[in-house]
Amino acid sequence: MEPMNRRHFLTATGAGLAGVLAAGVPPARGQQREISYLCWNNFAPNSDKKLAEIGQRFTKDSGIKIKIDHIAHPQQAAKYASEVQSQAGHDLIEMRMHFPWLYETQLVDVSDLVAEVEKKYGKVLASAQETANVKGVWRAVPQYHTFFVAAYREDLFKKASLKVPDTWEDLYTVGKELKKMGHPVGIPISQNYDSISTAGPVLWSFGGMEVDKDGKTVRINSPATEQTVEWYKKMFRDCMEPEVLSWTDASNNDTLNAGKAGWIHNPVSAYIVARNRKLVTADGINHHRSLAGPHGRHETDVPRHIGIWKFSKNVEPAKEWIRYLLGKREVFDEYIMSGDAFNLPVYASLLDHPVLKTDPKFAALKQEGVQFHCYGWPAPGSDKIQRITNEFILPNMIAKAVTGTPTKEAITWAEKEMKRIISE
Amino acid sequence: MAVGSVRVGSAVSRPGLRVREWLDHERFLGPAFVTPALVLIVLLVAYPFAMALYFATSNAFIGRPSHFIGIRNFVALWQSDSFRQTFQNAFVFTGASVALKLVLGITLALLLNQQLWFKRLIRGAVLLPWVIPTALSTLGWWWMFNSLYSVVNWSGIALGVMDPPGPNWLGQKYYAMTAVVTVNIWRGLPFFAITILAGLVSIPKELYEAAEADGAGPVARFWYVTLPMLKPVLAIVVLFSTIFTFSDFNIVYVLTHGGPINSTHLFATLARQVGLESGQIGQGAAISLYLFPVLVLVVWAQLKFVRRQVY
C-alpha cells in the first residue's frame, strides 16, 4: 500500500467532506442512530419509570439511542402544534383523542406496523380504530386505553344498605341518600375532559348524540338531550354539591380520596393513588361496571397511540422502537403491568390481561356489555369534532341548564355553537 | 529600526483611526447605535407580528397548506358565543383590575413613602408577588380558592363571616371573575406601587412646604400637588398595565381554564384553545389580533397625554 502523504490526505478528506455537506447526510459508519419520543406524564407514574427502563434495554439490544421526554397532557396539543409548525422536534409522539385526525397530513403511514401487531394480539378495539385510523390509513399505532368506570365507597354503601346502581336512574336514587349522608356524588360539570367523559356516556345511554355519523349533521337538539339535561339537573340539585362546576380533571379523584364523595365516574386512578399512598379511604373504595340507560351501556374511552412525524429523519429506527415496545409480548406485558390497570391494552386477545388479576378491585374493569367510544361518537373523528370537544360545549350546555338557563335554551345554544364549528 | 517601527505603528493605527473618524460623524454613529436594537425589533417583534397578520387573514390549520381569506376569521369569530363572551370578559377583567391597582397602588406608594421602621425590608417584600413566577403563585391561589381545600372559605367560616360551605369561587361566574381579578391585582400591585413611589420621591419638597404655608391640608396637598405631579407616571403605569392585563394568560389558564361557561376566558387563553389545541392557527391569530386596533388607540391617546404633561 502506498503511504499516504499530506497532499493525498487533504484531497481525500476534502472530497469526503464536500460529499457529506452536499448530501446533508453523514456517512453510515458515522451516523449515531438516535431517536426521541415525546409522551405524556402518565397518571400511573410507575408506567413512566418502566418506559425509561425499557428504553435503556432497547438501546442495548438495538444500538439505537432513545431519548424519552414527558409532558403534562394539557400541554400536548400546543407542543405538537409548535413541532409541526417548525417541522422540528421529536421523532415519535404519544397521541390521544382525535390527535391522529388533527395531524393526519404530518404523520407517517404506520399501517404495516399495526398489521404486524394485530397479527400477534388480534384486532384493535373499535374506539382505537376510530381515533387512529384516518380515512383507511393508520396514522398511529394504538397501544393502550384508559376508560371510565364507576368508583364508589363500598363501605358507605354497605353501611347504609344501598344497592350498587346499574343505571343512571339508579344512581339518582342512591345519590340522594349519599348526599344526605354527607357523601355526595361527584360528576364534574366544568371545562375539563372528565366532564365530557361522563356527559357523553349519559347522552349516548339516553339515545342522543352531538353530531351524526356523517360528521356534518348536528343532532344535539333532540328529546334524548333534553332527558340528559333533565337528569343532570336533578342530580345537581339532589345528589351533588355546586363545587362540581369548578372542578378540574383531578378534583373527583381528590374528593373521593379525601373521604367526601361517595360515588364518582372516573378511571381507576383514584383508587390506585389511594392504595399506593395508603390513604384511609383506600380499603373502602371499589369499582363497578359503567351505568346503563334506555339505549344501552356506553363508556368513554381515550385510547393512546404512538405516531411518527413525517419530518423525522429517523422513521425506520422509530418503527423499530414501536416494534420493540408493542410488538414483543414480554415487553408490552411488562409495560402494561407497570400501569396498575390504568393503561389497558387495546387488542382483542389481550383484553383479559393478567394486570386485571393483580387486585380484586380491578374486576369491574372487564366491563362486560359496555360499548366504548371516544369523544364525539358516532361522528367520525375530525378536526371539527375535536374542536367541539375542546370548546367544552357539552359540559357548558349542562352547566348553563343546572345553573338556571331553561333546558331548551341551553340546548339551542349548544346546537348553534356546534353548527357554527361544523359550518366553518 | 526607527523607520520600521513607524511603518508598523501607522499600519496598525490607520484602520483604528478611520473607525474613530467615522464614529465622530453622527450619520454613522446614530445608525451604529440603533442597528442592534433594530435587528432585535425586526426579529422578535416585526417578524412575529407579520406572521400573526398573515395567519389571521388565512385559513391556516396546523400542518396544512393555507390561503388568504381576508377578514373572514374576524367575522366568523364574532358569530361565536364564546368569543363574544371573551371580548366582554377582557374589558371587565382589565377595567376592574387596572382601576383597583391604580387606587391601591397610589395608597400603597403613599404608605411606603412614610418614615417606617424596616422601610427597605418592607419595600422589598412588597415586590415579592411581582418577582415570583406567575404560574407558581397562581397555583397557590388555586389551592386557596379550591372547593375542597379553600383556606379562604375555611377562614371565613371560622371567623363567622361566611356561611358554610362558603362561596364557590371558581365555579360561579361572578365569583370566578372576582377570583381572577383579585390574583391579577395581587400580582400587579407592586408594579404600580413601586413606580408611583419613584414618582412621589421625585416631587420637590418645596411644593409641599409652599402648599402647607398656604394652609393646604393633607387632602388638598394630595389633590393639588401630589396628583398633578404624578400624572405622567400614572399615565405610563396605566398604559403598561392595560396592555399587560388585556394580554394576561397565566392567571386564567391556571385558575379557571376560562370557565365556568367561558366566563373568565381572555383573548390569550381562547387563542390558545382555538389556535393550538384545536389546530385553527388562523382563527387563533385573529383572536390575538382582535384588540390590536383598540390597543393602538389606547397607546396613542395615552402617549399624547404624557407628552402634553411633559412639555
Overall mean pLDDT of chain B: 89
The geometry of chain A reads as globular
Order of helices and strands of chain B: HHHHHHHHHHHHHHH
**What's the CATH C level of the largest domain in chain A?**
Alpha Beta
> What is the annotated CATH architecture of the largest domain in chain B?
Orthogonal Bundle
Instruction: Describe the largest sheet of chain B.
Output: none
Number of helices of chain A: 17
Instruction: State the fourth-level CATH superfamily of the largest domain in chain A.
Output: Periplasmic binding protein-like II
Helix content of chain B: over 70%
User: From the alpha-carbon coordinates, what is the Rg of chain A to the nearest angstrom?
Assistant: 25 Å
What structural category arises from helix and sheet content of chain B?
mainly alpha
Query: CATH homologous superfamily of the largest domain in chain B, by name?
Result: MetI-like
Number of strands of chain A: 14
CATH fold-level topology of the largest domain in chain B: MetI-like fold
Unreliable spans of chain B are 1-11
Instruction: For the record, give the distance between the C-alpha atoms at the N and C termini of chain A, rounded to a whole number.
Output: 72 Å
> What oligomeric state do the depicted chains represent?
heterodimer
**Which range does the strand content of chain B fall in?**
under 5%
Question: How many domains make up the coordinates of chain A?
Answer: 2
Q: Whole-number radius of gyration of chain B? A: 27 Å
